[in-house]
Amino acid sequence: MMDALSGAWDYASRVTNSLLYGEDDLEVVDPNSKEADHEKLEDANAEDKRTTEFKDYRNYIGTDITSLVALPLFIMEPYTMLQKVAEIMEYTELLDKAAETEDPHERLAWVAGFCLGPFGSNERTWKPFNPILGETFELDGKNGVRFLAEQVSHHPPVSAGHAENSHWVYDIVSAPTTRFLGNSVEIFPVGRSRIKLRKTGEEFSLVPPNSKAHNVIMGRTWVDCYGNFTLLNVTTGARVQLYFTPCGWFSSGRYEVSGHVISAEGKKVLALDGAWNSHLDMARCDEEGDPLPDAHTTRLWNCEPKPAGDKYGFTHFAIESNNGKGLKPLPSDSRRRADRKALQDGETGVAATEKVKVEEAQRQEKKERQRRGEEWQPRWFRPASDATVHPGEATPEQCPMFDFTGSYLTSHPLSSAPPSDDCAGKGFFPWQYAELHKQQ
């Protein structure tokens, strides 16, 4: 997949697609200018490259391509799936707000606002790097937040993450699957997300909607999120039920989100309305679910403005989380990957070479484990002792469950380096058998 602005279409189809998918992408271009000629040539070259690279991918139609690593770098972003898992940490102040809210239904709504936050970055259409087994990503966030994610399984690909501060605890196990449909890819967010508020002791379970990337081979690539979003308070039985409207013809309904906070007794208490790429509001409602005439509207979540002109469509949060300056994370941290850093610097040839090196090292590790008759053991997570599955969540067969051991928080505080130091692209070492590898 690739950025909508670097997708391949000629001048005429650009105008047509803008009309089909909304005016946000509509540009005023002089078709006789040198800039337009150069842009059309680049688009044509990109179209040829994309078609060539994907010519044999018809063999994968209907299959899960999540683990497929033989993907061209020109469709990738300098970011890993572990960093994508961490993007929910952008709006942690909303969980802090939830922890301080006395009304239980409004509290549930604030948690929903937090959970909607990462959808603000879902329009990015580039493919992140698949994490190496044992790779990690860590963040120290605002309000005392600490976050760590680890790649705990390679086949199937499974990531586990944990975050906490003095108000709440967040855990996720992510094992997404995909279905390749020829010119589109459906993404199924298989996994489990659990949130606990320390003050009330309430626990919440999130089941997000599906996504679909359109025109991954031909045309302007774009992403839609559609279907049901359910946030269940498993302690009380109350829930948030949202519906993400699928994009229709001429961009009809695109981004629309609506639903309610529903009490344990099944009564609609709060109306929720917004757009998954921009905001979410709440207001008191009647029994039919319609906002009361004099109801005050509260903005639960507002998507931060994105940087103008960023090649990959990164948010400010994503750019900052890619920055390795002044940090001293674990040797297994995603920022340390040389292939990721080379792509970030625009050195695609170096990135391709480094990507092959790290994948070959991973294969060496697997062979050595098989030779010794050993199994991989995650460093910071362990198989879950409690396999409880809440309504709508993936089963343990669909997604192995993992618990955070807590040892990272006590033994590996995220230490700082001199501001001039930069760990990005340096010292990546997630390996189990150090003797097989030379320190990068």
Topology summary:
Layout: H1 11-21, H2 34-53, E1 76-80, H3 81-86, H4 93-100, H5 104-116, E2 127-129, E3 136-140, E4 146-153, E5 158-164, E6 168-174, E7 177-180, E8 184-188, E9 191-197, E10 203-207, E11 210-214, E12 222-233, E13 239-244, E14 256-262, E15 268-275, E16 279-284, E17 298-302, H6 316-321, E18 327-328, H7 338-344, H8 348-372, E19 381-383, E20 402-404, H9 407-411, E21 415-416
Helix pairs in contact: 4-5, 7-8
Question: TL;DR?
Answer:
Helices cover 23% and strands 26% of the residues.
Sum up the structure in keywords:
single chain; alpha+beta; two-stranded parallel ribbon; Porin; 21 strands; 440 residues; globular; disordered N terminus; 23% helix; 15-stranded antiparallel beta sheet; 2 domains
Structure, explained:
The chain has 440 residues and is α+β, with helices and mostly antiparallel strands. It folds into 2 domains: 4-57, no CATH class; 58-440, Porin (Beta Barrel). It is 23% helix and 26% strand. The protein has 9 helices and 21 strands. The strands form 4 sheets. The chain has a 15-stranded antiparallel β-sheet that branches. A two-stranded parallel sheet has the order 1-2. Helix 4 packs antiparallel against helix 5. The longest helix is centred in the last third of the chain and has 25 residues, at 348-372. The radius of gyration is 22 Å and the shape is globular. The two termini are 30 Å apart. The model is unreliable at 1-44 (pLDDT under 50).
